[in-house]
Design a protein that fits this description.
The structure is a single chain. The chain is mainly beta. It is built from 10 helices and 44 strands. The strands form 10 sheets. Strands 1, 36, 37, 38, 39, 40, 41, 42, 43 and 44 form a 10-stranded mixed beta sheet that branches. The protein has a 4-stranded antiparallel beta sheet with strand order 2-3-4-5, with no helix packed on it. α5 packs across α6. The N terminus is likely disordered.
Length: 744
């Protein structure tokens, strides 16, 4: 057996100048101590990530949301491509942040409100290419760089989304607005005074628009209507009101009625909605809608509820009639990383599919033609964009290094892919309309997120220019651990597993260290700041490593980028093969000689909580302690989306029971802490109470840490809550694992 180890040293060995304005401290340099208090207190020491880059129609300017002070409130910024200098466009009023609270609860609640106010939620260019439209707390504003923002469409108080019509000679200066209630409105800026017209009215509180797409000529809108009227209602207790109340939410379990969806087309001038005659069941899912270049047809990417039967359909935009263009059936499929769009000439479509193993781009001409591959190889495509101006596809792949994401340009007819980004890490680029420049939000294991511009006409790292500088100067005063990447086999069947390994400072292979697997989840191994970014564990991982723990994240079965067979290993087996993948990680660490097998812990949240509890129950004695955040311990109470992996419980009750950790609680012989928010609508707090009661009756050691004001993202809403929960987690591991290495 060959064990391969790879160290990510982009900031040290291959250090591109544009990425190294704030280098990491050397491993032996003195540094400020890391504390959970500082890591999760504003301003963020790593700064604030730039969000939502939006290109102007002429490709000369880039708008984005950012905060240059490291706090949460986002404003609009614009960078000129020629100079690369970012200019702040808005300074919207922010909630007051008391300087000192001294334990005053009212002031502390005000601090929490300020911390969780993320400011402007979205920005788009107006059709004239000069003004910007943005949303702040459900209100719509217009601003021209250099002037003051003005509130528009004041009759609308709950705007959820705004989309400008494409810029062309037929465009009337239209902007579409969708409200929280699901109404569709059109704003016509070309008329004086500006006209606001509702073109679709949601018929009830349970039915309304959830997505909208302009036609290329700006005269019609295609939209998806979701009907939630049949979905069951459940009460979520709120214990923080004067009297305990039940918040009623639409929350179906697997096998219960979910949303019905249909596709409508409406004129920008109003009138009757033309409903598409879609095939299949109204419960079927819609993954994509796009207009053909001549606006005569719509391409709809659709599948059954279980994502086993995908259909690419064309819809006649005048009659609503449906034609099947392509069908892909796979009874083992568990993922839908699908994309599709029209070819620039309208004679065919491009789409991603894993029909030949992993996700790649294919082309299919209209009619009975067979799809032909545009990309191929032992790697995966994660996103695709067609550029008619560049006559190319821009694709993000993991070619070369599975934990990285790089962008390539591929000719529309296929052929050699040209690499456009080079810095080691994760790139999330957005191509300009003319295809000449990428707006790239980049980060790596050693570099927090920032915005870069990449010249697609140049070659190599010199084409990259850094636009924002988010980390505070304080960032360079700390000593940050750098991840390594390792491979090892599943101990049962030899399947290769890929993992991210973080070692403590001054690591000494001759000593025995405590180790923590976590936060465990699928798709957790990325060369980006913090690894898995859906929870803010970047600071926690750094803190735990600093305290002397070896940290490991594993891309368990079901993760993307390793081929179809690897993803499908998880089918109807939550808490099975995935748990054995984690166990294999423990065996690998212990086999290296530097991990104390008596001091191994595990933690994760949501699905990661399922993995944590099941690992403790299935492998007693392997994990000394585990922390399960919002653990999904009953698959019977999961979201309906989990039927993609588990199918419906009516016909698969045995599989649901096998994957429900609470039914295996008698296996616990070690120590378990549960952290759960009482306002969680995704994984019900009730399920953690049920599990705790079972463990109490069984005489097991369990601690329930309750967060009264937390939703499902218990570590993402309110920093006092995050500090409290993370400190509890760290103290729990310190109690049962210790934190210092011992001599062998």
């Amino acid at each position: 057996m060959i064990i391969r180890l790879r160290l990510t040293v982009a900031a040290f060995i291959v250090c591109f100048a544009c990425r190294c304005a704030l280098p990491l401290k050397a491993q032996n340099a003195p540094a400020k101590p890391l504390t959970i208090e500082r890591l999760y207190t504003l301003p963020w020491v790593i700064g604030t990530k730039p969000e939502q880059p939006q290109w102007s129609p002429d490709s000369r300017r880039l708008a984005f949301l950012w905060n240059d002070e490291g706090t949460s409130f986002l404003d609009v910024w614009v960078a000129d491509v020629a100079t690369g200098k970012p200019e702040r466009v808005t300074s919207m009023p922010r909630p007051m942040m008391p300087a000192a609270s001294a334990g005053n609860v009212e002031l502390l609640e005000q601090v929490e409100r300020a911390e969780t106010d993320h400011g402007i939620s979205s920005v788009v260019w107006a059709p004239d290419g000069r003004h910007l439209l943005f949303l702040l707390h459900g209100k719509l504003f217009e601003v021209e760089p250099g002037s003051q923002p003005q509130r528009i469409a004041e009759a609308l108080q709950d705007v959820a989304a705004v989309v400008s019509a494409p810029v062309n000679e037929k465009n009337e200066g239209n902007v579409a607005v969708m409200t929280e209630g699901g109404d569709l409105w059109v704003i016509r800026f070309i008329e004086a005074p500006v006209v606001l017209q509702r073109v679709y009215a949601a018929p009830t509180n349970d039915v309304g628009a959830e997505e909208m797409h302009w036609s290329n000529d700006g005269t019609r809108i295609a939209f998806i209507e979701a009907d939630r009227s049949r979905m069951p209602v459940r009460g979520i207790p709120n214990y923080l009101s004067d009297e305990t109340t039940l918040v009623q939410v639409k929350r179906p379990f697997p096998g219960e009625p979910s949303e019905l969806r249909r596709l409508g087309i409406v004129s920008a001038r109003g009138g009757d909605v033309k409903w598409a005659a879609l095939d299949g069941d109204p419960l079927d899912l819609i993954f994509g809608v796009s207009w053909s270049p001549d606006d005569r047809s719509l391409l709809v990417d659709r599948s059954d509820l279980y994502i086993k039967d995908r259909r690419l359909l064309t819809i006649d935009s005048d009659t609503g009639q449906c034609t099947l263009l392509l069908r892909e059936r796979d009874p083992k499929n568990v993922t839908a990383e699908w994309w599709s769009d029209w070819a620039p000439d309208g004679k065919g479509i491009y789409f991603t599919s894993d029909r030949d193993n992993d996700y790649h781009v294919y082309y299919k001409a209209l009619g009975d033609s067979v799809p032909t591959p545009v990309t191929s190889g032992g790697w995966a495509v994660f996103s695709s964009t067609i550029s008619a101006s560049a006559r190319a596809l821009f694709v993000v792949t993991n070619q070369g290094r599975v934990e990285e994401r790089q962008m390539y340009r591929v000719p529309l007819g296929g052929g050699a892919a040209q690499q456009l980004t080079f810095s080691r890490g994760t790139h999330t680029p957005v191509a300009s309309p003319d295809g000449s420049t990428l707006a790239d939000v980049f980060s790596s294991d050693s570099t927090p997120p920032d915005l870069y511009l990449v010249d697609t006409t140049a070659a190599g790292p010199a084409a990259e220019r850094r636009i924002t500088h988010s980390p505070l100067p304080e960032f360079s005063q700390y000593r940050w651990a750098v991840a390594q990447y390792v491979d090892f086999p599943n101990v049962h069947d030899g399947t290769n597993l890929h993992a991210r390994l973080t070692l403590p400072p001054n690591f000494d292979r001759t000593k025995k260290y405590p180790a923590i697997l976590g936060s465990v989840y699928s798709n957790s191994v990325h060369n980006q700041w913090g690894g898995r970014i859906f929870h803010p564990t970047w600071g926690l991982d750094q803190y735990l490593a600093r305290e002397g723990y070896v940290i490991m994240n594993i891309d368990i079965s079901g993760s993307s980028g390793y081929g179809k067979e690897f993803r499908q290993r998880i089918a109807q087996d939550y808490g099975g093969v995935d748990v054995e993948d984690l166990y294999s990680g423990v065996k690998y660490l212990v086999g290296q000689g530097y991990v104390d097998e008596q001091r191994v812990g595990i933690w994760g949240s949501s699905y990661g909580g399922l993995l944590t509890t099941t690992s403790l129950f299935a492998h007693p004695g392997v994990y000394k302690a585990g922390v399960a955040g919002a653990p999904a311990t009953s698959l019977f109470h999961a979201l309906t989306g989990e039927m993609r992996t588990m199918m419906a419980p009516q016909n698969h009750k045995e599989q649901y029971a096998k994957s429900s950790a609470f039914l295996k609680s008698e296996g616990l012989t070690d120590h378990l802490m549960i952290i759960h928010g009482m306002k969680d609508q995704v994984v019900l707090f009730k399920d953690s109470v049920t599990l705790e009661q079972r463990l109490i009756l069984q005489g097991r050691d369990v601690t329930l840490t309750v967060l009264p004001n937390a939703p499902h993202g218990w570590d993402t809403e309110g920093l006092a809550q995050t500090r409290f929960a993370y400190q509890k987690l760290a103290d729990y591991f310190k109690t049962y694992l210790g934190e210092k290495p011992t001599n062998q």
